[in-house]
Amino acid sequence: MNTMGILRRLSELGDVFTKKEAQEKLGMSTKQLNYYLEALLREGFLRRVTKGIYTLSLEPGRTSSPHEFVLGQLLVPNGAVAYWSALNYYGMTEQIPRTVFIQTPVKKDYRKLLIVDGKRFKVIVVSPEKFFGISTIRLGRREVRITDPEKTIVDCLDKPKYCGGIIEVLKALKNARLDYEKLLEYAERMKSKAVLKRLGFLSGRLGLGIEKEIRLSEGDRKSFALLDPSMPPEGRFNYRWGLRINVPDDYWEEVE
């Protein structure tokens, strides 16, 4: 098969693919595959985005940059778009994060920040028990995993620093259409009292009613978590929820 025949076969994978996918598609040896990939790179039909990932165009020199979510899926095959990136995708925040946040239960030596094809990726490794509530969306020919809206909120309650702070969670709770029963179920499934405390406090502040279903023991209330762990440990104590409200009083003005 000549290089143009190989190109047509590869185009069936879409405009971005991995070397592993190409080998499975073409059914050839690594040596043969490397030969054709290098030939197509020289002719301008392919562009190497990073090790093992290529973009393709049927017009030489016209390869495009893949969608950041698609690239994130290829970089972290066992992951899902999450936190601030998922908040933005669902329209739960007007903020546009400069970094794509990917959650994965698979421990690997990921760098703190990956920069690939001019895009920034932050990989957050969580325990397998916290990796649930995953949906699938289609972008071009690719399916991409993303946390569903309720899991996105719960993850942001768990790690507010990956969503722009607790204020972004408050905005999302106020403006988004959410299944509150599922939201509470997910919060309980996280096995984190801090998540339940933050959810209860914010729900009470917005009058959502979720707070009425949250049960905390006296011991839970005497062990104080920070409302926003991304901010300094200061501020008044809330004994109803066992929280230290470490945000200024005018913090809520733009929302309420």
Describe the structure.
The protein is of the alpha+beta class. It has two domains: 3-56, Orthogonal Bundle (Arc Repressor Mutant, subunit A), CATH 1.10.10; 69-252, Beta Polymerase, domain 2 (2-Layer Sandwich). 37% of the residues lie in helices and 20% in strands. The protein contains ten helices and twelve strands. The protein has helices at residues 3-11, 19-26, 30-42, 68-75, 83-89, 149-158, 166-175, 180-189, 193-206, 218-222, and strands spanning 16-18, 46-50, 53-56, 80-81, 99-104, 114-116, 119-125, 134-139, 142-147, 225-226, 236-238, 243-245. A four-stranded mixed β-sheet has the order 4-5-7-6. The longest helix is centred in the last third of the chain and has 14 residues, at 193-206. The model has no long low-confidence stretch (mean pLDDT 93).
